[in-house]
Amino acid sequence: MGYSRTTKAGILASGSFLTATAGMMSAAVLSRVLTKADLGTYRQVLLAYSFAAPLLMLGLPQALYYFLPGERERSRGVLAENLILLVAMGAVFAVFLATCGNWLLAWQFKNFKLAGPLLLLAPYPLFMLPASSADACLMARDRVKQLAIYNTLSRTLMVVFVVAACVLWRTPEAAVIGTVAWSALAGVVALKLMAASCGEGSWRPHRSGILAQVKYSVPLGLAGMLGMISMQIDKMVVSSMCTVEDFAVYSNGAVELPLINVITGSVTAVLLSEMALLCKSGNHAEALDLWKRSAIKCSLIMFPAACVLLALAPEFVTVLYSAEYRESALPFRLYLLMLPVRIVFYGAALQAAGRSSVILVRTAIGLVLNIALCLLLVRLMGYIGAVVASLITLYTFQVPFCLTVIGKAYGVKLRRTLPFGTLAKVMGASILACLVLVPKFVLPWGDTWLSNAARLAIFGPLYGIALLWVLSATKLLDVKELVRMARAAVRTHVLKVPAEAQ
What we know:
Layout: H1 5-33, H2 36-57, H3 60-67, H4 75-108, H5 115-120, H6 124-131, H7 134-140, H8 144-169, H9 172-197, H10 207-241, H11 244-253, H12 259-280, H13 284-321, H14 329-336, H15 346-352, H16 356-381, H17 384-410, H18 420-432, H19 438-442, H20 449-473, H21 479-494
Helix pairs in contact: 1-8, 1-12, 2-4, 2-9, 2-10, 2-11, 3-4, 3-7, 3-10, 4-6, 4-10, 6-9, 8-9, 10-16, 10-17, 12-13, 12-15, 13-14, 13-18, 13-20, 14-17, 15-17, 16-17
């Protein structure tokens, strides 16, 4: 059975959403059972791996999107070549942690209690790096349902393993052991699913096949590595320059909402191939129009989310992490300021126009600027300077640079690269709907967990109702069409009524 691009994009996006949601759920529990120092130590362990992972992967999981589709002679061999490389890279990092790497990282983070948990993490990359190819492998082999089930169960079990270990022993070492135990189970299941999806040929790898995958994946891996480092550099600088307690507060607030990958990522995955085909046929105007329409659709969710969470950030953080982490609301609010320019993936428009090389240049320059600003502002402002540096880099260099290049690639002026007028109206409507939140600021609600939860429960839905009214009144959204689409989705995905029968 074939699956539409929308369905496949939705499955990929759901994996990102489940990962982020599982991380927030486990963080909510860990923030209550661990001290700030212990939570910061556990977060530093995860940061060490997440910072190294893009370098270790080298884009190899993405290579399967290219080499597996249509392979009918030696799919097993192609998979084996990919997994051998990933296992080898995992072994390199495991040996590094098991020898002197744990102490080097503990010294870098100025937290010598980190050495023990990092040593316990050593087996983790041996399982997780090979498992990172599961999405690409199962998608390429059209095993969409299996991937959806695997994503759901594996992320759920991650929360169970980590939380159970912490609740029982209340130490960062316990959290790491739970994480490694989960990775072993998830890794073995992922390997079995990937092996079952590839039934052609022998498992014998070919040297030429390994070299072909390396040649294909390394350029992608370099761009991805720089991009991931750019996303994590603020946490790395804070972890290195501030106390472990400050890092715990910062890392709880400095989180990117799953909305970016779930909404923008899924829309991009659907449109990229269409835009590329239009550009190849010389129809750049229509390709850019597709991109601009996607920006409007994404803004209808991203702009309101940014506005309402900016207003309710203290309540959100307190309910999620407890009153002890109320200070996390400030970095959380500053991270929300990135949402208005994350309504599109700028790299997608560049890729479609054949300007992929620009992505690496932009990422490299942006990373250098971000590091320099992070080091300076953290020294001047404390941990909050890290997210300020990221905002400055994003708004003054990365976005203007991308829009300038996109304008040249598509033959339009910079002001025509995005529908700025319509986006301004959506933002205006999102801000106007915030008027219903005024009672939250003027009435005496108290500051208990229950009162914070009550404000979220009251003002979140109230804002949604007000927003729908404003968007409908300003003709920015057809509510009747929205209801019709929702009913169709329920019939198709919940009641299992075939789309052609509707």
